[in-house]
Amino acid sequence: MNTLRLLLDTFWDESVWLPPNTTWEDLEPGPDKVVIYNDYRHLFYPLPLALVLIVLRHVLEKYWFAPFGKSIGIKNTRPKKAPNNPKLENAYQASSKLKHKQICALAKQVDLSERQVERWWRLRRSQDKPSTLVKFCENCWRCSFYLYNFSYGMFILWEKTWLWDIDQCYIGYPHQGVTGDVWWYYMISSAFYWSLTISQFWDVKRKDFWQMFVHHIATIALLSFSWVCNLHRIGTLVLLTHDCADIFLEAAKATKYASYQKLCDFLFTIFTLLWIVTRNGIYPFYIIWSTSIRAPMLLPMFPAYYIFNSLLCLLLALHMVWTWLIVQVAYKSISAGQMEGDIRSSSSDISDSSHHSNHSTPNRVRSKKSVMTIS
């Protein structure tokens, strides 16, 4: 027990988490305090809220998004199942990727031709892919949440001083109270990223699975660190900046699945412009510039602040990778005349060893030999 207490005291060392001359008692919520301080125990609330969001998503997808998708012609057809073959199934479970040497070895083991093994492998991989309707419902859910969260964020922050003057994020810190509307904004946003982290393991599998996993964990850590350190003001600005472009991304993908190609192209164009403006303009040159340059001028630095700023920079690094891929997709889309797929989706080609990942952008260009449809 003493060892645990020592570890906790070491971890929550005030010299690490708080500015100089500030103690946990100073920031402890209570009726005698002038402002309402953040309560670190509230970081547990997003976990049950995440389960609520997962249930809500299931209900909306089943009773709203799926019927709507069917009404506009999206089919819930599943690919043909591969014939039962225990040896091939065991090999597939070991690794879904197959090289030519493995094809030759498996063909001898199961007494089939190499062509038959390849055909079985394609069927088996297609079998794991969700239907177009399932992917349409997933995009509708995310689009709905991002639209709600961005709208709510704009509504509550419109009259907040730090939205218009970012220096207000640091002036008076750390004695900045949290209001009820900001509390809900933080809790629901954290719950959503927790739900994405959990559901990612059964959602549509993308090639950037681990990039997105790191993104979700970094976002959760960023929200948690900023909450504990009372840096919620800058945290709300980061949330608002991130939700904006994602609305149009998910909408573009949903319209692609619904075969509204012109609307998809239009929405993707808006998404690309918003992404570049918010993720590569406002975020680095306004928010990170403020946290890196202005903040040290206005308040004394402390170790946890550098952790917080490092997480912001980690998100920026992910943005830069995805921006390069999005620009590539946009260029290919213009060359091809339309968007043909999703470069985050898994290729069904056994010999495909390239892994072009993206935050999620609906496109893959037609080649002379074959067409990669959206998956």
From TrEMBL:
Pfam families, per the entry: Homeodomain, TRAM_LAG1_CLN8
> GO cellular component terms?
endoplasmic reticulum membrane; nucleus
Q: Repeat: is it a keyword of this entry? A: no
Q: Does the keyword tRNA-binding apply?
A: no
> Principal place where this protein is found?
endoplasmic reticulum
Which PROSITE patterns does this UniProt record tie to the protein?
HOMEOBOX_2, TLC
Any idea which UniProt keywords this protein has?
A: DNA-binding, Endoplasmic reticulum, Homeobox, Lipid metabolism, Membrane, Nucleus, Transferase, Transmembrane, Transmembrane helix
Originating species: Bombyx mori (Silk moth)
The protein depicted here goes by the name Uncharacterized protein
InterPro entries reported for this sequence:
HD, Homeodomain-like_sf, Lag1/Lac1-like, TLC-dom
Write down the DNA-binding region ranges.
Answer: 90-132
